[in-house]
């Protein structure tokens, strides 16, 4: 299982407070998933606090012009840091968006009272490190039990977001929405540019979606984002066919940056719970990236909330996909 070596001397000598509890938490949060693996955040660790900043230079200006998915990705990193701080032995204290005059300062984390982590905390941390996005079709003949789906719902609710599990009769609407979103984005040269940039990163840069995590385009129950031409996709699609997959919409009561950040924390909690129970989660975000299909998803929610992202849920394959790269701590954590 993947592990972060918190006592790595090389890390300690890098010049930021990597050996402080907050530095170590920020380090673990580098594992957070993000839109096209952009990792659009920075940590400033100093004076007993870790500030989480949005990195606007990594915003996808065509795919994500409002920064909704950028802030959501930062929310995932925030929750990852809190899980790590707990395992390091501190109760996390978080001020979310403490200063309205600096909107890109998203949260300030402090190490609260010392507390011994529970076994559940340890399991969550291990799952956080092991989690990967698996784009292969869902394995045949194995379904996620209903009580496990309820646990994912509970994980989202604990962080102020909600999970709508699509009943069978709503899946065709998602299919149409995903097809429509793909058509809109494919026709947009800006989106094509964003995709090309973040699937062809310089070697060793530690970001972007790599060919080794992309499956060829085969008929899918709900169409997937086309990251790369088939000849370049490096992950075998396997024998699955998505018939056993469940589809869901993570949604929030509001549609402001604070809601996007909270939705990211909820998604992180959901991803960790899913990984613990051998459930694979593949985000489907093109349907929220374009306004018409975001409205379609809101319709599936009977206008009861704001769709943040769609998800494909399936029983995890026996072998995980290869890990995606991450940026270096020096780039992302300063003190
Ligand atoms: C906000 C957000 C949107 C995403 N959208 C998609 C998507 O539409 N399709 C997809 O296959 N993966 C999607 N992903 C998964 C990312 O591409 C993935 O997290 C990233 O490449 C890092 O890989 P990892 O999750 O295996 O660590 C999304 C992730 C996030 C956090």
TrEMBL record:
One of its GO terms (molecular function) is oxidoreductase activity. It comes from the Bacteria. Residues 324-335 have a biased composition (Basic and acidic residues). Residues 316-335 are annotated as: Disordered. InterPro entries: Nitroreductase-like. This is NAD(P)H nitroreductase. It comes from Actinocatenispora sera.
């Amino acid at each position: 299982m993947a592990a972060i070596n918190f006592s790595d001397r090389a890390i300690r000598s890098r010049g930021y407070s990597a050996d402080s509890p907050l530095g170590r938490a920020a380090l673990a949060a580098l594992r957070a998933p993000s839109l096209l693996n952009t990792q659009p955040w920075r940590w400033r660790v100093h004076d007993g606090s870790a500030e989480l900043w949005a990195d606007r230079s990594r915003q996808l200006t065509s795919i994500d012009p409002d920064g909704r998915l950028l802030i959501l990705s930062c929310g995932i990193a925030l929750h990852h840091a809190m899980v790590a701080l707990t395992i390091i032995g501190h109760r996390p204290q978080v001020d979310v968006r403490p200063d309205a005059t600096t909107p890109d300062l998203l949260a300030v984390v402090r190490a609260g009272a010392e507390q011994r982590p529970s076994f559940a905390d340890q399991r969550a941390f291990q799952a956080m490190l092991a989690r990967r996005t698996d784009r292969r079709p869902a394995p045949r003949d194995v379904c996620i039990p209903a009580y496990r789906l309820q646990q994912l719902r509970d994980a989202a609710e604990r962080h102020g977001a909600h999970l709508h599990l699509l009943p069978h009769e709503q899946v065709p609407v998602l299919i149409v929405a995903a097809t429509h979103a793909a058509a809109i984005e494919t026709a947009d040269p800006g989106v094509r540019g964003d995709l090309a940039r973040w699937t062809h990163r310089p070697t060793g840069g530690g970001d972007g979606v790599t060919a080794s995590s992309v499956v060829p385009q085969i008929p899918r129950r709900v169409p997937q984002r086309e990251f790369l031409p088939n000849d370049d996709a490096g992950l075998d699609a396997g024998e699955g066919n998505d018939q056993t997959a469940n589809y869901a919409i993570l949604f929030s009561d509001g549609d402001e940056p604070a809601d996007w950040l909270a939705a990211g924390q909820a998604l992180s909690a959901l991803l960790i719970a899913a990984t613990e129970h051998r459930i694979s989660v593949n985000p489907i975000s093109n349907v929220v990236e374009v306004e018409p299909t975001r409205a379609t998803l809101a319709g599936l929610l009977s206008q009861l909330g704001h769709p943040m992202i769609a998800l494909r849920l399936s029983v995890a394959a026996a072998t995980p996909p290869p890990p995606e790269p991450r940026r270096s701590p020096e780039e992302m954590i300063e003190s």
